[in-house]
Design brief:
The chain has 221 residues and is an alpha/beta fold. Helix content is 24%, strand content 26%.
């Protein structure tokens, strides 16, 4: 099994994500520069990391979504391979159309950087199968534009189809219906605003994020 992490100008969580993938799979990920037009052969899991791609100019993730490699990522998702976007990566996935909705400025118009409590809303996905239903976990957030927004029809569809993966268990950024992570219709693409890669080893103060990477690696095998 092979993993890959996409690297944009301004990515600053790509190494953290790579370490989490390596811990879960036992193999070093391919680090793929955004100007590449294809992914390495045999890649099963693709990570789109956090940071400030292109300095968050225009809109967070908007310029990164136009990078050549994102066409390859979209094709891989259509083929059923797994794609996981964290924070800025979540923003990129909405900008490419791989996930519905948009990430807007936080309700308090301020950068939020702290541990937050999440509730696991869906335990049936490749990303969440090792969690218990309604389990509360502690995961760090670090964002200025983490307020998930979608129209009421889209939100109802996400709820009805079980595509809300995580919810905030406390007020954080004003996200619609406290949504912290959503899945695509096929269930092989997840966008998540909090950073599970920053809570995936004991030195980080807990292992609540490790379950996500272990679940994904187990499913991909």
């Amino acid at each position: 099994m092979q993993t890959a992490v996409i690297v944009f100008p301004g990515s600053n969580c790509d190494r953290d994500l790579a370490v989490a993938f390596e811990q879960a799979t036992g193999k070093k990920p391919h680090m793929v520069w955004h100007q590449e037009t294809s992914l390495p052969a045999g890649v099963d899991i693709i990570g789109v990391p956090g940071g400030f791609s292109y300095g968050d100019y225009l809109r967070s993730g908007a310029m990164a979504a136009q990078s050549p490699v994102m066409r390859a990522v979209s094709d891989a998702a259509a083929q059923g391979r797994y794609v996981f976007g964290v924070c800025n990566g979540f923003q990129v996935l909405t900008e490419t159309g791989l996930l519905p909705g948009a990430l807007m400025r936080n309700a308090g118009i301020s950068f939020v950087c702290r541990d937050v409590r999440l509730k696991v809303a869906n335990t049936q996905s490749a990303f969440t199968s090792l969690y218990d239903a309604n389990e509360e976990i502690l995961i760090p957030v670090a964002h200025h534009d983490g307020n998930y927004f979608a129209d009421a029809e889209t939100l109802d569809r996400l709820e009805g189809e079980g595509r809300v993966a995580f919810r905030y268990a406390e007020a954080v950024n004003g996200s619609a219906r406290d949504i912290a992570g959503v899945l695509n219709e096929a269930g092989n693409v997840l966008g998540m605003m909090p950073h599970p890669e920053r809570r995936s080893e004991a030195a980080h103060g807990g292992l609540d994020g490790k379950k996500l990477f272990d679940a994904l690696a187990s499913t991909a095998r």
